[in-house]
Each structure stands twice: as C-alpha cells, then as structure tokens.
Design a protein that fits this description.
Layout (H helix, E strand, L loop, with lengths): L1 H14 L8 H4 L3 H18 L2 H17 L21 E5 L7 H11 L3 E7 L1 H6 L1 H4 L4 E6 L5 E6 L3 E9 L4 E10 L2 E8 L7 H19 L4 E7 L7 H10 L1 E3 L22 E6 L4 E6 L10 E5 L1
Parallel strand pairs: 1-2, 7-8
Antiparallel strand pairs: 1-12, 2-4, 3-4, 5-6, 6-7, 8-10, 9-10, 11-12
Length: 302
C-alpha cells in the first residue's frame, strides 16, 4: 500500500511534465500538494524504517518543490495577507453564482482601487454593485461566455481604450492606457478559457499567443490582470512572460492561493497581476473571501 501511494504520486508528478496531452497539463497545477504528500510519506517511511521508500519519497518531494521553487521562498498563504486597506489596482473573478455580493462590495470598498478588473459579472451582480460602478467614470465592458461579462473600471481617463476578441471562442481582451500615481501604464485584461477539454486548452494557448503580440507593442509599460486559468510555473506561462518582457508579481512572494476558495488543500495560484520588467510594485495581497470561488488580488504601484 505504501509503494502504491508512492506510485500514484509519482505518476501524477511525471504526467504533469507532459505538454502533449491536454489533460496531463492539469496535473502540473498541484505541485505543492504532491510535495506535501511525498514529505508525509517520507516521514512515515522513516518511522517504519523503510529507507528505500524514504529515499524515493524525498526525491519526489524535491522534484515537485523544484518545479515551484520561485513561489515558495516563504510559504505565506493568502488568508494571512488579505486585502485590508487601499490598493492601486485590483483584479477579482466575482463568480457568476456569487451568493454573497455584499461581501464582495465591502472588499472592493475597502480596497478602493484606481483600476479594477471584474470578471464573471452578471446583471444581478452589476445591480448589486451599482454604487461601486458609479465610482468609475471610465469603463470597458465585454460579454464573455455563459451569460457573464468582464469589466475594466478606472477612476482616471482611459486613452486608446478598445476591446478585441481572440480565438474560436472570441475571448475578449480589454485594453486601455491609464495614468496611475502620475505614471502612464497600458492595462490589459486576461480571462482565457480553462483547460477543461482539448478544444478549450488549444483556445487558451491561442489566446496567450494572440495577446502577447499586442502587449509586446503596448505604448507604455504593460500591466495584465485577470484569471489566467494557468499556474505560473506552466511552460506556456513562462514563455508568455519572456515574449512580453514582463514578470509575475507572485514570483519570490510566497505561495499565493487564489483558487479554489472552497477547498484550500488543493489551492493554486490561478489569478495574476503581471507587470512590465521596469515596473515597481509593493504590498501584494490576496483575499479575503468575497463570495466567489476565487480570491481577489491587488497591489500598489510605486
């Protein structure tokens, strides 16, 4: 039974390195969980004095921790560092079935961001958040799928604002040049389809390849926010950063769980704020719960 458990963890770990089969890519999401399971198995092996299994388990834990090495210098989980004060920019997948919209409104009211990206906004949620929407004279709004919209809101003027669509599913990209703290930035949304099937996985990759060309040619330093439906150690994510000359605000800032709120043990960093390499930021915060299956994420721009 002990070796069977090891074989299962090893199989999941190795499958996650395979980029040719679409559903194997999902196995790459849960590296921290594989590492913790391997460490637990190693401790058990030490207790029962099975040193072969101990050695194998330690190796497997190191393999998975190495994969996410840039995100675990300090294990600071999201509920220790939630948004409790004003943020310059903020992104949140509000969840179309959100049954606690007033909690969402309170969190946005506390953060009071200059630029706010809201995903999975329904007519019901927009009506509930009407006081929030009223604060933002500049707005971009695009229907996505399943009867919800994505909204980019700004207190400051939007220049060169436009909405483009990419992929077979016409996933939108909201973009605008906005001044924050006396500096201009090119803001972009990001909400590709999740890799729930081969078609959607292909669309996810097409979306990233399409928008990277636009971002690479942005007028000002880019800031890309949203639910990327990707974890930051995936190969396509890192290629995206390289091609757009950007960096993830999650790198070297600890392991940040942004999804799923309803089952923290399987939590992964799914939501991101990506910035140009020449952009400085501070006070990265994730959470608290806002009635969504995602946590909000926000930063300050220096």
């Amino acid at each position: 039974m002990d070796y069977t458990l090891f074989a299962i963890i090893m199989l999941l770990s190795l499958c996650g390195f395979n980029n040719t089969v679409w559903f194997f890519k999902i196995f790459d999401f849960f590296r921290l969980q594989y590492a913790l399971a391997s460490i637990s198995l190693a401790l058990y092996s030490f207790f029962i004095e099975d040193y072969i299994l101990l050695t194998l388990s330690v190796f497997l834990s190191i393999l998975n921790l190495w994969r996410i090495r840039n995100y675990i210098p300090r294990l600071k989980f999201t509920f220790f560092r939630s948004i409790k004060n004003k943020k310059d920019i903020m992104s949140v997948n509000t969840y179309l079935k959100n049954d606690e919209p007033h909690k969402l409104e309170t969190i946005i009211d506390t953060a009071d961001p200059d630029v706010l990206l809201l995903m999975e906004i329904t007519d019901r949620l927009e009506l509930t958040l009407k006081n929030i929407f009223a604060r933002y004279p500049y707005q971009l709004k695009a229907p996505v799928r399943d009867g919800f919209c994505i909204c980019l809101l700004s207190k400051n003027k939007m220049d060169n604002a436009q909405i483009t669509h990419h992929g077979v599913g016409d996933s939108p990209l909201l973009q605008a040049d906005i001044n924050v703290n006396d500096k201009n930035y090119s803001f972009f949304s990001a909400h590709p389809k999740p890799a729930f099937n081969k078609k959607w996985d292909n669309e996810r990759h097409y979306y990233f390849r399409a928008i990277e060309k636009i971002i690479a040619n942005s007028k000002y330093s880019p800031i890309i926010m949203g639910d990327f439906n990707s974890v930051p150690w995936e190969s396509h994510f890192n290629k995206f950063l390289e091609r757009t000359n950007t960096k993830s605000t999650l790198i070297h800032n600890g392991y940040k769980i942004t999804w799923p709120v309803y089952f923290i043990p399987m939590g992964v960093p799914m939501d991101h704020i990506i910035i140009g390499n020449d952009v400085n930021f501070s006070d990265l915060k994730v959470g608290p719960s806002c009635g969504s299956d995602h946590y909000p994420i926000g930063i300050d721009l220096n």
